[in-house]
Design goal:
The complex is a heterodimer of chains A (152) and B (486).
Chain A lengths: L7 E2 L2 H10 L4 E7 L4 H14 L6 E7 L6 H6 L7 E6 L2 E6 L8 E2 L5 H17 L3 E3 L18
Parallel strand pairs in A: 1-3, 2-3, 5-7
Antiparallel strand pairs in A: 2-4, 4-5, 4-6
Chain B lengths: L1 H12 L5 H13 L2 H13 L5 H4 L6 H15 L15 H31 L6 H4 L3 H11 L16 H12 L8 H30 L1 H4 L1 H7 L1 H11 L2 H6 L2 H5 L27 H5 L5 H20 L7 H17 L25 H8 L5 H7 L43 H12 L13 E3 L3 E3 L3 H5 L23
Antiparallel strand pairs in B: 1-2
Helix pairs in contact in B: 5-6, 5-10, 6-8, 6-10, 6-13, 8-10, 10-13, 12-13, 12-17, 12-18, 17-18
The chains are: A alpha/beta (152), B mainly alpha (486).
Amino acid sequence: MESVLLPTLTKKEEIDRIINNTIDKVLVLRFGRTSDENCLLLDDILEKSARDVSKFATVALVDVDSDQVQVYVNYFDITLFPSTVFFFNAHHMKLDSGTADHTKWVGKFHEKQDFIDVVEVIFRGAMKGKMIVHCPLPPERIPKYQLLYKDV
Amino acid sequence: MATLEDSFLADLDELSDNEAELDESDGDDAKKDDEDIDMDMADLETLNYDDLDSVSKLQKSQRYLDIMQKVGEALGKASDESEKGTVLEDDPEYKLIVDCNQLSVDIENEIAIVHNFIRDKYRLKFQELESLVNHPIDYARVVKKIGNETDLTLVDLEGLLPSAIIMVVSVTALTTKGSPLPEDVLQKTLEACDRALNLDSARKKVLDFVESKMGSIAPNLSAIVGSAVAAKLMGTAGGLSALAKMPACNVQVLGHKRKNLAGFSSATSQSRVGYLEQTEIFQSTPPALKSRAGRILAAKSTLAARVDATRGDPSGTNGKALREEIRKKIEKWQEPPPARQPKPLPVPDSEPKKRRGGRRLRKMKERYAVTDMRKLANRMAFGTPEESSLGDGLGEGYGMLGQAGSNRLRISSVPSKLKINPTIAKKLKERNYAGGATTSGLTSSLAFTPVQGIELCNPQQALGLGSGTQSTYFSESGTFSKLKKI
């Protein structure tokens, strides 16, 4: 099985370019650092399913330690790593998975199939013109976390 | 060819034995004029068909003797490489090779004539042998071995023929219609066999000579197929230029032996390779690829022969390059196919769902279709208020159901296509049977109740419970009470 490494983005221009260039496909951006164990697990799943969803999705990794991307980190309010943000035709897609934050997916996926299901639901919703979709996974598969609001 | 014509005329002469030939010759005669008939008949009679020499003249001819002598000499002495002239056609050795090729073709024709001769003579003794043993030289050998013998168990045919054929020959000999030949005919037949075998050995000698010279005559061709096969091909084609003029499909079947396996079907063994079968390349390919290899060998060797015919490449490098090409191609065929990559998933909702129709779907839909009763109940008349089950507009409306003139309140007698629960179906059947002529003897329309005593109409029946005495054991519509899977 070939392991084409997912593109890792470190510069703001790269992120802009990839968001604008991905047409009619879901863009999956993972924000995280390679030293984190959760991140590595998530990356593994992303790599394995990248080829399967390649017809309707593109996957890319963003290294959160580089300074140029801090703009985006602040814009999306990413505090917990890894976080995954979904785009479609330069629109930010929201995902209601029963957690507090709908703008991103925090944590890892339990299985490859879970990830593929989420991407498919996002694609379907986006093709219908929706901006927010409902997550198809059962609650036990969704990683739970506590959102800190202004460090409270 | 002169000798062939003579042989055909000689065949026509055989009027006494074969009626088929009689008809043929009659037909032929009818075409000629009357005067010619007399003259030809006279000529034919002068041809003494009994004499072998009148039929097969080659071995006595001067040309044959000359060439055989030269071949003998050349085989004896060592070849001198530097004697090659600048123009090939002037080289005496090349001329000899060309003559040898022509001679080998002539010898083959001659062998065919002698074979006919032997066959005609031996037909009186053992007619079926000619169809069992096809090859002329083998036939000659077998005839020589058998001679005038009637009992084939005394004759040892080992080594001459494959054992299956020997068996068939022995069995056929038991039931043959022939009779032993007279002494002089037998003598002539054996002489003819000897002649055939001599011709065959002469041909072999000629081919050996050609083979030894093959490296200088046709270097490219012998680089691909080897000198022995190249010599054979040239010998059968009748020269290098004749071989070069042939299309590749003909070259492929040059020297193809017809293996008539005495009754076995020839549909399975359809190998269309002749002498090329003996080449090293062909022998070393796996059986599955043999037919393709035969085709490519024939094609490339034809190209090499054409190069050699025009002396375009005396060193033979072209031939070596072609051989390498063939080897590479055969190797490529044997490569395993590339491993399959897992396909990416299709885009969601890109392929519309295929809805199927047809009789089966229609039948399934009928079970849940709206019935006629329901249709009538849904329809309402204009101007008249609808009747309803509880009266005054309460309850379910009846619509057109039960209107005067229509008899649709009752259940129609056509069996409904709607699906009914099996337990309810059973109860309905019971209810219907209760009034029938063939009811069970233990059913009763009386009921014993604690309050009223004996009742004539059974209130339980209206509720659908049936009378308590209504037995299920003797029921008409009952099934097995205990079912156990074996």
